[in-house]
Design a protein that fits this description.
The protein has 4 helices and no strands. By secondary structure, it is mainly alpha-helical.
Amino acid sequence: SLFILACHNQTPLSYYVSQMRHAYPGQKALLAAVIDRLFRIAKADGDISVNAEALLADIAYGLDTVSYTHL
């Protein structure tokens, strides 16, 4: 499945964050919507773990979206 492939992928997260930032320059609302959806996915099973929250914060920072605290 796609999920299993993603789990075994050695490409660092920063690569994908960089790709998104460069594919949609200046579109902070779109990138903020991506972060919002990632939060919703993370919360689907209940509370967001500390590790998941740290990962999402890193993504939000890398995408240069609105302040992480506003998400």
